[in-house]
Amino acid sequence: MKYAPLLYFTLSSLATVAKAQESNMAAGSSATVASSGTNASPATQPNSNPYPTRAPGSTSAAQTTAAPSTPYSSSTAAQPPASTTLPSDKCTWDQKQIPDPVKLNPVASYSYQPESPNVQAPGAIDKDILKMVRGLTLEEKVGQMTQIQVGQIIDCNGKLNKTAVEYWVGKWKVGSFLESPGNRNGIYQWYSAEKFAEMTDAVQEVATKMGSKIPVIWGLDSVRGANYVKGAVIFPAGIATAATFDPQFAYDAGRIAAKDTRAAGAHWVFAPVLDIGVNKLWARTYENFGEDPYLSSQMAYSSVRGFQGDYKTDRTRVAACMKHFIAYGNPFDGSDRANRHVADHELLEYYVPSFKAAIEAGSATAMEAYGAVSGETVMLSNFYLQTLLREHLGFKGFMVTDWGEILSQVTNYKTARDPEQAVEGAISRTSTDMSMVADDESFNNITIALVKSGRISERRIDQSVARILQAKKDLGLFTHPFADKELQKTVGSAQDIKSGRDTARESITLLKNANGALPLKTSENVLFLGPTLNSSRYLSGGWNVHWQGPSEEEGDAVYQGFADTVLTGIKQVTGSPAKYMPAVDIDGTTKYDWDGVIAAAKQADKVIIGLGEHTYAENFGNIEELALPQAHIDLVSNVAKQSGKPVITVLVQGRPRLLSSIVNDSSAIINAYLPGSYGGLPIAEILYGKVNPSGRLPYTYPAHSSQASHTIWQASYVPYVPQWQFGYGLGYSTITYSNVSVSSPTLKIGSPLTVSVTLTNSGAYDQKEPVMLFTHQTYRFGYAPDNYRLRAFTKVALKAGETKQVKLTLKAEDMAFWDRNLRRRIEPSPVVVAVNPYTHPDIQATVQLEADPQHVLERL
Ligand code: BGC
Q: Do 685 and 744 share a domain, yes or no?
């Protein structure tokens, strides 16, 4: 069943060049540093398995122990066949994961097939698929709708348990698996594509011979590159990608993640993450493209195109899964999965556009969101998952639940009496096609029983099965169910490393630069302090090797050389090792030799302090306070005051932690977000002026905890005075803006206007400048106007001394808003058209928006 390597996928040199030059050197030394004790390691975890098991409905961050992964351990319904020997009977392994021994030897570069301009998207179901559905038994159909997590087929020796595979695939006819064995007690910490594919291929062997004999579709959280595949480039987090203000980077990350995921034998990524991150306490802030609906939509579109390309014909691409539908990013108290209070018209205005864009880009699948919106759980909502997703947005792909979300209706949210009511509701009220169960047979048993008793119609089941099988066909699984060995050679190529680094280079955001503190000169005597400068794992955050990131015990050695640190980057840039002291640990619980730190700072010309957050994902990242740890704040203050030397703070963080006195105590501040496994060199390059920073904030950076949910688009009568505004950021050069003009004094439907502005780079450095067009309605009858709304942006490269005219388009249709009757219409008023208002407040014009307020552009 193997297929020949695709012709267009030409591999160039098989040399190891790339690795040696771009990555091994850097990360090899980071591994040495980690074990040499220079960065005294904080508390280690008792078990090397750093990822807690997600029990259905579990929201407790306290639940950190990995449950034994015997295939039948969490079964609540059917028991294993009598002949089966339970793997737990012969457990000898202590579940300590080991490094994957496969030596990677990636090609330096490769070519790929750009997609055609016509978007490939899910659509009508093919006749052969309809026929196939008709030929399946009820049990086989329900099996297709079932997704099981890989831990269920991992034996207690960390290897694939064939008996368990046969149990799930043969007996329960399961059509999908998810997750990385590296998260689920698999023997290796970080699975190479080769080892991963040995497992997925073995499962496909069984799936094509047993049960319904239909290949399984494997879903993987390749959210930032194929982050679970050894050596694959872990890209900057979504929030950093958004900060580039260049959607091409979202495309690149998607395309590369797709081929690396395929190389491992998985065909489906649970990405892009399109939640609008409103509450900055939220632990998933970093996974998204920020708070702005327009920026998010642009990134969403490119990202889906990158993942999918021509996914119906190109076997190097995957199915995307836009998630999490919907309004997940505004938990009322900031904790993950908490209720969100969002009126329907606000939902349509701010939270829906990024999903709409993903659908336009052809997203083959969608995932619903955990928890409730305005008290109604998404999982059981006919409005969110049928009216909005299917009827209004016209989504035709298949929809999967989030993890264990059907049973969570009973165990967690108390929105169903029992599992039967939960399953019945999820299937009959919504358009759920697949249940990410993920640990037991309950969904199969209950669904089969519900159909047999007539509570769910078999026609409804057929609809879902058809969507799933169509996706399998589109992805080529019926002809190519196995992993592509040729693709494995491209994982971690120099070309991909450059792509990851370029994204980081353009995302890092300079927030303050007093008295030309930056860039540094190589002649300066610089002292480097802080936990995030000497760590690869903090650069990537959660969803990095493991769900929760590498454990402290694994340390950076887990990367086996496929990552760098800021310190290794500094060495590359300056040619000599950085003078480094840890000073404080990542959580601010331990201070290291502060007397020595102050003494060393006094000897230096400047001090760089790297602060930020440890790795976390989902509810394990819940925090009560948005402020950085007090010891981080004190370190900056003590060093600045007691040494009198300029302090430059580098933030490596998933969300904008409050800085308090750090803002004044630092001469310069850089927000690096989570720049990914190769983010160290880009940070060093920016510090030394090899790269001129061009990232801009994709969120509002709060000054106080009361501003945790402030956004650029909040009602304008609420004062918007954050630490830094959405879109804010500096470069090393000076860009002057002049001659703003609009092509017409009036803005009407069908007559877009052009906004022109002249930019001159009057400084000494070449610079890339994101130019953003915002609008603000001076009043809006009955509905508080947004503070500012982003309507268009472009990123312009300006050489030192160069002048360019930039033109952006504004349409009256952009000014339409959703009212409480769920009609999209326009209220006329004078409109302020502003370009980068927070750095260039005088660059604005006023136009008259003319429209009939009764004219409805769209309705729900
Ligand atoms: C997350 C999803 C993820 C899924 C599978 C869930 O807990 O919310 O984003 O895709 O797990 O790992």
A: no
Residue with tokens 């929809």: 399
- Is 60 exceeded by the pLDDT of residue 92? no
Radius of gyration of the chain (CA): 26
CATH number at residue 97: 3.20.20.300
**Pairing, β 217-220 against β 268-269:** parallel
715 is a domain residue: no
Q: How far is CA 745 from CA 248, 748, 779, 789, 833, in A?
A: 33, 10, 17, 19, 11
Give the Å distance between the CA of 403 and the centre of ligand 1.
6
pLDDT tens digits along 630-660: 999 999 999 999 999 999 999 999 999 999 9
CATH code of the domain in which 851 resides: 2.60.40.10
In a domain, 690, yes or no: yes
What's the gap in Å between 601 CA and the centre of ligand 1?
44
Output the CA–CA distances (angstroms, integers) from residue 706 to 360, 624, 625, 817, in the order listed. Answer: 36, 13, 11, 27
Expressed as residue numbers, the domain containing 755 is 735-859
Model pTM score: 0.91
784-811 tens-digit pLDDT = 999 999 999 999 999 999 999 999 999 9
Instruction: Mark whether 461 and 530 lie in a shared domain.
Output: no
Q: How many domains does the chain have?
A: 3
Q: What is the pLDDT of residues 152-186, one digit of tens each?
A: 999 988 999 999 999 999 999 999 999 999 999 99
499, part of any domain? no
CB 112 within 8 A of CB 315: no
Closest Cα to atom 7 of ligand 1: 403
Which of 286, 307, 328, 402 gets mutated to test ligand 1 (max ligand atoms within 8 A of its CB)? Answer: 402
Ligand 1 environment, Cβ below 6 A: 54, 178-179, 221, 270, 323, 370, 402-403, 618
Active site residue ranges? 402
The closest residue, in CA terms, to atom 2 on ligand 1 is 402
